[in-house]
Amino acid sequence: MSAHLTAFICYRDPEAAVGWISDVLGFHVVRTYRDGGLLAHAELRRGDAVVCVQRDDRGYEVPEPKGDCVGSGLYVVLDAAEVDAVHERATTAGTTVLIAPETTRWGNFRIELLDPEGRQWSIGTYLPGVGDGE
């Protein structure tokens, strides 16, 4: 049986989060739900990647970065030219860049960003979950 993984993230300001995910990361809004005029839930897609944004009505805490990492995050796989393009859009938008474009020792060309509420997003060329020889 196949599986599909979708991330969901709660934001205090879901409108700003949707704008950032769209404008900086290049995702497109495919569905929204409003409650009393406020954005309660949005679904964004880029290729096979889907992110659901939900309104944070409970005050979840986001860890502070320790060096260049908050301890967990989301990973989006793109080609190298798009990694550079995301970096350019991120810096133009004033996004906190934890790691500027670099090639890791395992061959991943990546950047590490913090979204407007401090969650970490890794954008890179490495495709996880594919074994050697596949």
Descriptors:
134 residues, 2 helices, 4-stranded mixed sheet, alpha/beta, 2,3-Dihydroxybiphenyl 1,2-Dioxygenase, domain 1, 8 strands
For this structure, what is the CATH class? Alpha Beta
Strand adjacency order, main sheet: 1-4-3-2
Counted by DSSP, the helix tally is 2
- Label the CATH architecture: Roll
Number of strands: 8
Instruction: Classify the secondary structure makeup into a structural class.
Output: alpha/beta
Q: What is the makeup of the main sheet?
A: 4 strands, mixed
- The helix content is 10-25%
Low-confidence stretches: none
Shape: globular
Number of domains: 1
Order of helices and strands: EHEEEEHEEE
Percentage of residues in strands:
35-45%
As a whole number of angstroms, the C-alpha radius of gyration is 15 Å
Name of the CATH superfamily? 2,3-Dihydroxybiphenyl 1,2-Dioxygenase, domain 1
CATH topology heading: 2,3-Dihydroxybiphenyl 1,2-Dioxygenase, domain 1
Give the mean pLDDT. 95
Protein name: VOC domain-containing protein
InterPro entries: Glyas_Bleomycin-R_OHBP_Dase (IPR029068), Glyas_Fos-R_dOase_dom (IPR004360), VOC_core (IPR037523)
Domain VOC: 1-126
Write structural notes for this entry.
This protein is α/β, with parallel strands linked by helices. The protein has one domain: 2,3-Dihydroxybiphenyl 1,2-Dioxygenase, domain 1. The chain has two helices and eight strands, in the order βαββββαβββ. A hairpin with a 5-residue loop joins strand 6 and strand 7. The chain starts with 6 loop residues before the first strand and ends in a 10-residue tail after the last strand. The mean pLDDT is 95.
